[in-house]
Design brief:
This protein has 444 residues and is an alpha/beta fold. Helices cover 48% and strands 15% of the residues. The strands form three sheets. A five-stranded mixed sheet has the order 1-12-11-7-10, with helices on both faces. Strands 3-2-4-5-6 form a five-stranded parallel sheet, with helices on both faces. Strands 8-9 form a two-stranded antiparallel sheet. The chain binds 5-phosphoarabinonic acid.
Length: 444
């Protein structure tokens, strides 16, 4: 018998406090966009919605697995993912969620590090760690990930770490580098010249939509994540996210819900995740929304200055930091709660006689039970205070669940962009600071 697939559950739609009329209007609009997405599903990587088709690409999964196997055959002790923004956030999200934030301490064989920004102290420490490995004649893999191939931080960090690699692997350094980039980028050319392994990012797949491409798949496969399950989860939710009825379509429904908040001048969307190891997933979504929906101009080029401010909170940690604001402050925030139906492990609180006088009724209870009680208590308080929210329950920490969640969120973002009349795939204003930085770097 085939195992029953564990799907993510969407609940508490009524707590979003959105009128039926909003859904009726959205339904008429989103039907058109859902049809465009359905069409895109038949067009491989030829449409701007190319990301939709990544999870269906078996050849992609196979070629990534081949490169990962060949790289693992070098028996590396360290993998450094050099990339920033859409080029590393998805990988870190899945890795932290499934391998855990203490993975490096607990996993003796292959440790992973993310070199994103050019913080000198962080890079100095990373260089020291890398050099320790190289001195012991261990293999260190550099995965340079950049769609454009020219991002300042990524190029600087790649140059620094490559220099160190060459010092210890003078004639064979090329074996330890994998470049993930667009086939038309200069980085691709460098990879060809230097004989680095190269993995292509389809031209129509932008950074923040690329987690299901080689960008996410290669490092995740190296780290033991079941990338087939990640893709399967994404595929399985895509069908419902292309349904024409908003009621049946979780991405259209959540997009409409967020859009409805926007109509009520609620411009902050807080993703409140009740699992410490989901913080990076929240940050991945934050970037997806920030860059896709924060726009100066609408599709027609009219100045609109539209945006939804994505924030991330961790339960229960941030209840001791922000709950006062969330439950007492301005009515300016919509919340999506994310919880697990079950965690990968559980622990029962032992009786501790010396703490008896502090008893908070937790002795003998499991940590899952306590976490669940807190999350439920928070949702009741939100309802009582008319703080709008919806809730998502992930069945468990699994690649299949993460695949569903991430694909749902990417499609939700596309629908939301449609409702807000924005292009979800460009980021023209990011150029404003990049241009100034380039000028400063060029002229000292
Ligand atoms: O989502 C995006 O497009 C961006 O966040 C990019 O991923 C980020 O700027 C890094 O760009 P690149 O992959 O070209 O180095």
């Amino acid at each position: 018998m085939k195992p029953v697939k564990k799907v993510i559950q969407f609940t508490d739609w009524d707590a979003a406090l959105i009128e039926d009329a909003t859904f009726e209007i959205a339904e008429r609009h989103l039907e058109m966009e859902a049809n465009v997405l359905r069409q895109a599903r038949t067009q491989n990587y030829d449409s701007p919605y190319a990301f939709l088709n990544l999870p269906y690409d078996d050849a992609l999964g196979q070629s990534v697995s081949r490169v990962a196997q060949a790289t693992l055959a070098l028996e590396p002790s360290m993998l450094i993912v050099i990339g920033i923004g859409g080029s590393n956030l998805g990988t870190k999200a899945v890795h932290d969620a499934l391998n855990g934030i203490f993975y490096n301490e607990l996993n003796a064989t292959l440790k992973v590090y993310f070199a994103d920004t050019t913080d000198p102290d962080m890079l100095t420490a990373l260089v020291r760690i890398m050099e320790t490995q190289l001195k012991q004649d261990r293999a260190v893999i550099l995965n340079i990930v950049s769609k454009s191939g020219t991002t300042t931080e990524t190029v600087a960090n790649a140059a620094l770490l490559l220099d160190l690699l060459k010092k210890y692997k003078k004639d064979s350094y090329h074996k330890y580098v994998v470049a993930t980039t667009d086939e038309n980028s200069k980085l691709w050319q460098v990879a060809q010249q230097e004989k680095f392994a190269a993995l292509a990012i389809p031209a129509n797949v932008g950074g923040r939509y690329s987690v299901m491409s080689a960008v996410g798949l290669f490092p995740l496969a190296m780290l033991g994540i079941d990338i087939k399950q990640l893709h399967e989860g994404a595929r399985d939710i895509t069908d419902s996210c292309l349904e024409l009825s908003v009621e049946e379509n979780p991405a259209a429904r959540s997009a409409t819900t967020i859009f409805g908040q926007y109509g009520k001048n609620i411009f902050i969307h807080n993703t409140f995740l009740f699992a410490s190891e989901l913080e990076s997933l929240g940050k991945w979504y934050r970037q997806l929304v920030g860059e896709s929906l924060g726009k100066e101009k609408n599709k027609a080029g009219r100045v609109v200055h539209v945006g939804i401010t994505p924030t991330v909170a961790i339960g229960s940690t941030d209840l001791h930091s922000l709950a006062q604001l969330y439950l007492g402050g301005p009515y300016d925030t919509f919340t999506t709660f994310v919880t697990y139906a079950s965690f990968a492990t559980d622990i029962t609180i032992p009786p501790a006689p010396e703490l008896k006088s502090l008893d908070t009724n937790t002795q003998g209870l499991s940590l899952t039970h306590i976490m669940d009680a807190i999350a439920r208590g928070v949702k009741v308080a939100y309802r009582n205070e008319l703080r709008p929210f919806i809730a998502i329950e992930l069945p468990e920490p699994s690649a299949y669940a993460l695949g569903q969640f991430m694909q749902w969120k990417m499609i939700e973002t596309v629908y939301l962009a449609y409702l807000l009349d924005l292009n979800p795939f460009d980021q023209p204003n990011v150029e404003l600071y990049k241009r100034e930085t380039r000028k400063i770097l060029n002229h000292g």
